[in-house]
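WARN retry 2 of 3 for item q-0093 after timeout on previous attempt; input resubmitted unchanged.
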Amino acid sequence: MHKNFYASGFLYHSRSQQILLQQKNSEQWTLLSGNGLQNESWEETFKRVVENCVHIKPSLSSIKQIYTYFNHDLKKEHFVSYVTVQKLTKFSATKDTSFAWFTFKQVTKLNLSSQTKQDITVGKRVIDSFLRKSLGQQTIG
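OK item q-0093 returned
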């Protein structure tokens, strides 16, 4: 049986410490996101979303999970993740969607839903933890 879920996340450029967000129809900034398809894992869903939105093809192993929770508004399991990219590419806007890179500090000043703010905040903590761990420093978990 198909598990009903939703996957979202952002691209992360480590050198500039910026994340890529999207804005549809001049509304709030959001994560790249989409519904899971039948027989798709959350990683495959996020890979498909990234490919469709910005036309890059991340490997499944490059997709890092931030966390998972049940989204009561969507009535679905929600997987939040990110992909580290090497280039700070400028992505062209489409008919109804624009893309932009932001530092974590800039994100605090954007028009975001409270859930998107939470997802990005947790994402930053996970990224910081991975960085500390790679430097041999102590981390939680």
